[in-house]
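Duplicate of #3305? Posting structure anyway:
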């Protein structure tokens, strides 16, 4: 059982290409406090 109480944020993006949206998402995740949030990324296309 997972006892981690931090909210899990699901980021849904269209594809995992190298570009502005993907770099922005990485920057957003890296700048949010790890002690407060968990993250998952779902990609619609490969």
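Output from current build:
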């Amino acid at each position: 059982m997972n006892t981690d109480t931090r909210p899990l944020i699901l980021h849904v993006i269209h594809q995992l290409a190298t570009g502005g949206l993907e770099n922005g998402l990485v920057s957003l995740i890296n700048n949010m406090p790890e002690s407060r949030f968990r993250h998952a990324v779902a990609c619609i296309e490969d």
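Confirmed duplicate; merging threads. The chain has one helix and two strands. The beta strands are 8-13, 38-43.
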